[in-house]
Amino acid sequence: MRIENPFRLGFIATIGVLTALVLGGMVASLSTILTYIGAALFLALGFEPIIAFLERHRWPRWAAIISSLGGAAIALGLVVWALIPSIATQVEQLSVRYSSIVNDLAGSNVIEWVDERFPDLQAQEFVTDALEWLRNNLATIGGGVLEVGFGIVNAFFGVLIVFILMLYFVSSMNSIKRGFYQLLPASKRARTAELTEQITASVGKFVLGQVALGLANGILSFTFLSIIGASMPAAFALIAFLGSLIPLVGTLSASVIIVLLQLALMPVDSSVWWMAALYYVIYMQVEAYVISPRIMSSAVQVPGAIVVIAALTGGTLLGLLGALVAIPIAAAILLIVKQVWIPSQNER
Question: Which regions form coiled coils (predicted)?
Fold first, then answer.
């Protein structure tokens, strides 16, 4: 290749690099908004199989949408209604228990006893230094608490934005698809529409499959924890449900959290925590080899190695949302490769 005007070539290359940098900065600045859009679209596709099922049974789309969203809202309300009394009672019990412990420690001259038995520890000086540090860093601690408060408020508005976007995507899903198809050449619209429907159906079935796994884990956890007399079974069933929504590591993480909290909340000589640990070890095996294959068999057909790689990559790039959407995205890519790229290669 002969370069007739090096200055022009360098100028165009520089403009291209600057444009790429500007676009990259814009994407980085809009990462939060893009995350909200991705989460809302992911949830909307999860409702789509239910809406399509109702439409096939001659429900108007508006009625199917209202019924699906209303059913989800009622279920969420029932969960919250069941959790509030249990959590309030447990918080009151913990307050009474640990208040008595603190009062016993305060009235027993523990510091003087430690100084007498272990003079090298200098417990009184340690307490004095700790109180001095607390006074000097009170403003910093207050600022941290304020920052946590702002974080909670931002999280609330983020959930609200995702909910509003989800409503829009659910109500206008067909219009969005038709608008996307019209941007393509007429000769490719039919094939693109077919692939798009398969991909969206795969994502929707994946979401429903994860929710079904979460419900199974939550219901079984609530039943077992109630039988063994565990602390706050409804709250820990919710933790089990939310954990099962996360592919690969969600069930394990939720199980560890539940066992550790039972160990902290129950009396020291209680056998609840190790019974819960034994239960979750058995449940994870049953879920991995019995429940999950049957629920997810029609959802996402992805080899195990690709599932692990996709989940790790998605989690690294986008956190929890990335781990959730990585597997259906991998399934969509495999579908495109099998039905588009490989046939085109065979024709050459």
Answer: none
61-90 confidence digits (pLDDT tens)? 888 888 888 888 888 777 777 767 766 666
DSSP 150-192: HHHHHHHHHHHHHHHHHHHHHHTHHHHHHHHHHTS-HHHHHHH
The structure tokens listed for 300 are: 């996402």
Contacts of 156 (CB under 8 A, 6+ apart): none
What the block records as the tokens of 252 is: 């394990």
Q: Distances in Å between the alpha carbon of 310 and those of 150, 179, 289, 293?
A: 33, 29, 21, 18
Neighbours of 144 (CB within 10 A): 11
Positions of E strands within the chain: none
> What is the tens place of the pLDDT at every residue in 2-29?
555 666 777 777 887 788 777 777 766 6
For residue 50, the one-letter residue type is I
Q: For tokens 């600045």, what's the residue?
A: 29
**What pTM value is reported for the model?**
0.68
Give the Cα separation of 330 and 324 in Å (integer).
11
> Exposed (0-12), middle (13-18) or buried (19+): which is 205, by Cβ within 10 Å?
buried
